[in-house]
Write a sequence for this structure.
């Protein structure tokens, strides 16, 4: 029979979990937008394809990054959530919510076991009503960072239990095997878990180093390999296409590593991490700014003083693994961040999204809350029955109030279920990564036939580019494998084939014309459009002036190339040039947050180099690229049809936001340019949206906002 204390402890435990679930589910259902991150929807693609019965590629190709197997595991876990609750982003975000819930449960239980219920309750309060970074980070389906916290605390729980057992006990080997499997799977899931393994090794060596017998090491090693085996299978399928070596990290990741190990740089790094990054990761930024800053300062002081006294206690008694582990983890974390190339402090400074800026600190936050909870619990015990007994209560209350305010701003009942408008899957990153390797005709054929229309619109040009080598051998290949796809999608494929033809022949216009001539006549124009678009990327020169507000374009070589192309398709060639010009200006303006009104004047700077009879085609290309840039991205990110009123309203707001950007970027057109420009807009809108009602609604919004007359 449970004692009275055990019953009370159990009630507190389940109450803590209930409060956490209630808060997070409420946030998720009423204010999805603050918890969105563009990378996370890649992780839902596998679940979507499994449920639709249309796997586009081999299983391991759904892993987004070489160093993050969690992106593949997420896709598998998401299947039942998509099946039960639909394929929206809310369904995908239930996965990190569950990860965080189990993490909290394990932290509560292990603190309660090795300290007491009061400290476990205080820790839970910090965790539930956390700073903005953890509050939002634990509802973002990145498949790393926060999720690694579960692997960390699971490893700690099992290791602490193992060290308390006799080797002859029945469950001892099972415990060893479980630790090995979780360790291997944790490393595969996310490389940042390696910090945990380092910390566990250090703590075990201090507490009970004789555990590392040959027999125990064999159990751990074999089970580790079992947990790590998905990494091995992934590496067998993915090698560097140039050197033939297995990829450990993506090229983007390795290019960002900080390999400067000079003493002065390391000193600067230490100062930034301690003085700026860690305090920022704990900052209460919502609600009342001054109160939030005060609460953050109080929390940092509590953590700092608690850490000093906690370490002092360890020197007196350090035979408990769990008591030692938080310090071991903190030391390992800071050692990796200070003295290795894995953390580059310049990367966070380039991030505009607060959560992305400090996401690498998410695994550290529970340990900082642990030290704060230990400190406040000891203050409560020490000052109990004295005149200072209310001091720790006031300190705790001030931090909790700031945390409550931090979390409550993300509860917006008026937006209930509006997040169901956002797709829980997106191929925007997955397909380009898949196409980096040379693909067989059969693999490309599967993409052409099975890829959803919204994703196909964006990705078909690159698929067509890969198909170009096959098209040169069999000009009718697109007609054969794209049977049943609409004409807009076919045009996107042929646009990509034009890009592939440029890759093959460059400026050898004779060979280019010979290759395009054998393609069905109805699609030759799209090939020339893609060919010149890629030629402009190769041969044109762009000089940015006045911090991006002005520019100089040098397009003479591209213009010469256009003038010797097939006269019947020269208009298409000029549209291809215009689309590249607009693409560059959109990128420069959006990435540097320049006024959108500057885009069109900069694009029009090339108009004097265009023959008078072809200026209309160039303006039309501007209109098409500008509109498709904002609308195709929207189409791929959200559902255009939804049942809930708030979701419909959310889509309408998103459409208005994107249309307003099109309108702003259209400023600077002369009256005689409006007709071809609106023609390009109309083509982009009708291509993007299949629904005639939505087409007309979008065209009306653009017309009303821009004073344009777009014939429906």
């Amino acid at each position: 029979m449970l004692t009275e204390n055990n019953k009370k402890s159990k009630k507190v435990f389940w109450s803590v979990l209930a409060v956490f679930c209630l808060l997070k589910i409420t946030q998720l259902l009423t204010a999805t937008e603050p918890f969105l991150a563009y990378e996370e929807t890649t992780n839902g693609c596998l679940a979507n394809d499994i449920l639709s019965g249309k796997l586009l590629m081999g299983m391991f190709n759904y892993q987004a990054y070489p160093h993050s197997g969690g992106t593949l595991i997420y896709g598998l876990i998401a299947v039942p959530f998509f099946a039960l609750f639909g394929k929206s982003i809310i369904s995908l975000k239930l996965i990190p919510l569950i990860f965080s819930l189990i993490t909290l449960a394990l932290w509560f239980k292990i603190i309660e076991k090795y300290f007491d219920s009061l400290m476990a309750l205080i820790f839970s309060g910090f965790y539930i009503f956390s700073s903005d970074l953890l509050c939002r980070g634990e509802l973002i389906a990145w498949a790393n960072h926060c999720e690694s916290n579960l692997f960390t605390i699971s490893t700690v729980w099992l290791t602490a239990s193992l060290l308390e057992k006799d080797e002859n006990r029945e469950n001892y080997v099972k415990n060893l095997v479980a630790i090995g499997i979780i360790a291997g799977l944790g490393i595969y899931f996310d490389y940042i878990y390696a910090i945990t393994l380092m910390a566990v090794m250090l703590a075990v060596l201090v507490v009970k180093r004789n555990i590392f017998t040959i027999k125990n090491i064999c159990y751990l090693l074999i089970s580790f390999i079992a947990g790590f085996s998905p990494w091995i299978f992934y590496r067998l399928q993915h090698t560097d296409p140039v050197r033939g070596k297995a990829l450990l990290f993506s090229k983007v990741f390795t290019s960002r590593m900080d390999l400067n190990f000079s003493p002065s740089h390391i000193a600067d790094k230490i100062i930034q991490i301690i003085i700026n990054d860690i305090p920022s990761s704990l900052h209460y930024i919502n609600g009342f700014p001054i109160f939030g800053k005060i609460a953050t300062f109080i929390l940092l002081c509590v953590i700092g003083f608690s850490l000093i006294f906690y370490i002092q206690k360890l020197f007196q008694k350090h035979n408990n693994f769990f008591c030692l582990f938080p310090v071991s983890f903190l030391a390992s974390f800071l050692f990796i961040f200070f003295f290795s190339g894995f953390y580059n402090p310049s990367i966070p400074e380039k991030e505009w999204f607060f959560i992305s800026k400090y996401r690498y600190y998410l695994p550290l936050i529970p340990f900082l809350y642990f030290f704060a909870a230990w400190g406040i619990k000891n203050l409560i015990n020490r000052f109990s029955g004295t005149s200072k007994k209310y001091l720790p209560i006031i300190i705790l209350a001030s931090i909790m109030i700031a945390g409550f305010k931090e979390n409550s701003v993300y509860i917006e009942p008026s937006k209930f279920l509006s997040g169901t408008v956002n797709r829980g899957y997106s191929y925007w990153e997955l397909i380009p990564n898949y196409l980096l390797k040379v693909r067989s005709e059969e693999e490309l054929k599967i993409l052409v036939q099975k890829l959803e229309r919204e994703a196909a619109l964006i990705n078909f040009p690159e698929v067509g580019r890969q198909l170009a080598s096959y098209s040169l051998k069999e000009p009718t290949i697109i007609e054969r494998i794209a049977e049943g796809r609409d004409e807009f999608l076919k045009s996107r494929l042929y646009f990509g084939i034009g890009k592939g033809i440029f890759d093959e022949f460059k400026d050898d216009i004779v060979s280019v014309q010979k290759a395009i001539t054998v393609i069905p006549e109805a699609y030759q124009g799209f090939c020339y459009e893609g060919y010149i678009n890629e030629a402009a990327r190769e041969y044109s020169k762009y000089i940015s002036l006045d911090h991006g507000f002005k520019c100089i374009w040098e397009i003479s070589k591209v213009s010469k190339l256009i003038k010797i192309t097939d006269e019947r398709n020269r208009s298409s060639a000029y549209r291809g040039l215009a689309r590249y010009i607009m693409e560059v200006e959109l990128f420069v303006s959006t990435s540097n947050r320049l006024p959108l009104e500057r885009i069109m004047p900069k694009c029009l700077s090339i108009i004097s180099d265009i023959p008078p009879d072809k200026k209309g085609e160039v303006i039309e290309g501007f209109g098409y690229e500008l509109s498709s840039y904002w609308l195709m991205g929207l189409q791929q990110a959200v559902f255009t049809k939804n049942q809930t009123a708030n979701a419909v309203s959310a889509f309408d707001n998103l459409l208005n936001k994107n249309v307003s950007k099109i309108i702003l970027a259209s400023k600077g057109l002369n009256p005689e340019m409006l007709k071809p420009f609106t023609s390009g807009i109309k083509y982009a809108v009708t291509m993007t949206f299949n629904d005639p009602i939505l087409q007309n609604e979008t065209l009306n919004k653009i017309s009303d906002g821009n004073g344009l007359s777009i014939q429906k």
